């Protein structure tokens, strides 16, 4: 059993850190709604990570934008299938989008968090790289987990809705045209900005996430869910992850 | 390379979720100090997870209590050594406690968080299962990462300080006798209460963390740092983690 799967799908620790993210998010949104912010947390089209600027709120209604997989849904069925060591195949994942919904459960804390947001009058919007062609199955999976509604083009945006592929910025900008987005949640840095795709090495990408201009957003507008099972976080050789100054051996 | 090590020691996602925990913690503590709470977040000796009751604050000074390893320090040197697949050996870990300090770095967000707590007048206390016999090396490692001071018996509690072994409740109660503990942080459920050791299966332990009486504490007094590399979270067989209703196969 891969340790990351034991952690994410089986442990109390992962349940706790997920609930923590959702609790922090709802507390943050409650406070922001009270303050009536002048800008949201979606980066403007010409912003950089070094100089982040955010889409303005004007009199737009509030929204919160979430990734779907491993952010609001745990894909137990697909990962059971992968736990035997089967390598990722896109066609198999797309088949899972269509028939896997009965094996998914909500991420711990997600239902309570999403319910709380809606009670605050905040529109909950999903921005996922599931295929637009499979929209009906994805809508049903979200609603089956108690997280709906999700209406394509209004509160559900998918890969294939535009011509930018797996990038999510264009969809975010489209959402920010209509809403004051006061919080975002995801398990991949690309769920917050496509600018995180630019750094070429794991160390540079980690530095980008830790940079002072960005660090203040984590847990304050941008909310991260744990995922040590797949995705952009799982990169790097032994030399990348443990550079020379990180190495230890016992004294002889 | 184990995926959990890529995630924890190398990824922007893990840096972000760690900074998020520390940001949420400092925001929470700021608010609690303003509210002057009547009780803290250390469970009383006769409390249960189903009926949590917390040590009272009276006029005690404020403190926040943290685990050390993978909560405030990343043990890159020991995990580099383990990344080749070497199984855990207690003697090797104890040697690392003594000579490994130069390979550790602070968890992303920990230094800023701990500095902020001290500025708020909150005493920062470490409660670790590092060996009391190695106290001097542990003190130096904490201070080298910019997280000190740590004074044994005052702001640093270790395994061997009492006769309860790796259990941490007795140390927590001792701290709560002198302080109003308004926040705790750790990467293992045992960093919050030894009661989490009772459930016999991963599923029961996860349920304990998700139970309504406890769920409200995550991110609101109890703050979890990610650790998919070692510890109590990494348990369970394929059958434990993916029960029958979690299984999927594509249609033939």
- Most extensive contact: A-B, 83 and 83 residues
Return Rg of chain A in Å. Answer: 18 Å
Number of domains of chain A: 1
**Strand elements of chain A, count:** 9
Structural class of chain A comes to alpha/beta
Low-confidence parts of chain A? none
Q: Which strand order do you get reading across the main beta sheet of chain A?
A: 7-6-3-8-9
Q: Which range best describes the helical content of chain A: under 10%, 10-25%, 25-40%, 40-55%, 55-70% or over 70%?
A: 25-40%
The CATH C-level name of chain A is Alpha Beta
Q: CATH fold name of chain A, please? A: Rossmann fold
What's the helix-strand series of chain A? HHEEEEHHEHEHEHEHHEH
Report the sheet with the most strands of chain A, covering strand number, pairing sense and barrel closure: 5 strands, parallel
The overall average pLDDT of chain A, rounded, is 97
Beta-strand content estimate of chain A = 15-25%
Assign the CATH superfamily of chain A: HAD superfamily/HAD-like
Quick one: overall form of chain A? globular
- Can you tell me the CATH architecture of chain A? 3-Layer(aba) Sandwich
Q: Count of helices of chain A?
A: 10
Organism (chains A, B): Sphingomonas gellani
Keywords (chains A, B): Lipoprotein, Signal
Protein name (chains A, B): 5'-nucleotidase, lipoprotein e(P4) family
InterPro entries (chains A, B): Acid_phosphat_B-like, HAD-like_sf, HAD_sf, Lipo_e_P4
Describe the structure.
The structure is a homodimer of 252-residue chains. Chain A has 252 residues and is an alpha/beta fold. Chain A has one domain: Rossmann fold (3-Layer(aba) Sandwich), CATH 3.40.50.1000. In chain A, 38% of the residues lie in helices and 16% in strands. The first copy, chain A, contains 10 helices and 9 strands. Chain A has helices spanning 3-10, 12-35, 76-83, 90-99, 110-119, 135-144, 169-178, 202-210, 212-215, 238-241; strands at residues 39-43, 54-56, 62-66, 73-74, 105-106, 123-131, 156-159, 180-186, 222-224. In chain A, the strands form 3 sheets. Chain A has a 5-stranded parallel sheet, with helices on both faces. Chain A is globular and about 65 Å long. The interface between A and B is large, with 83 and 83 residues.
